[in-house]
Amino acid sequence: MNAYQQFRSSLAVYALAVLGSFLIVIVLVWAMFRYTHPAPITQNRVGERKKALAEIRNTETESLNTYGWVDQSKGIVRLPISRAMELILQEYQNPAAARSNLVARAEKAAAAPPKAPEQPGKYE
């Protein structure tokens, strides 16, 4: 076998290897697309999504426009937006006092719960 024939056979082997690699990648991409592609949205699913969105918006509207407890044990309440804006305008007539009040409220809201009592030893 001369050098030219040897070169052609090795070139053919490399070409087949590259072609095989591309085919493997194409099959993997097709498989991943098939497995990760979501199912089409049917009319039932559209109705469910619209209902869920309406529920979320109603909950948000209620949260923005009504009073309620956020954390009753810490004394944190939820105010309607309009009332909260009125209170902020009144409070920031004196900015220094408002800032110190804000810091105190933030510390109270973020306070760590009390440490759990240590368990007595097995023989105590």
Low-confidence stretches: none
Major sheet attributes: 2 strands, antiparallel
For the record, give the distance between the C-alpha atoms at the N and C termini, rounded to a whole number. Answer: 92 Å
Structural class: mainly alpha
Radius of gyration: 34 Å
**Number of strand segments:** 2
How big a fraction of the residues is strand?
5-15%
- Based on CA inertia axes, which overall geometry fits? elongated
| Helix and strand sequence | HHEEHH
Q: Which strands sit side by side, in order, in the main sheet?
A: 1-2
Number of helices: 4
Helix fraction? Answer: 55-70%
Q: What's the SSE blueprint?
A:
Layout: H1 3-36, H2 43-65, E1 68-71, E2 76-78, H3 81-91, H4 95-109
Antiparallel strand pairs: 1-2
Task: Describe the model.
This protein is mainly alpha-helical. The protein is built from 4 helices and 2 strands; from the N terminus they run ααββαα. It has a two-stranded antiparallel ribbon. The chain starts with a helix and ends in a 15-residue tail after the last helix. The model has no long low-confidence stretch (mean pLDDT 87).
Give a short overview.
The chain has about 120 residues and is mainly alpha-helical.
Keywords:
124 residues, mainly alpha, two-stranded antiparallel sheet, 2 strands, elongated
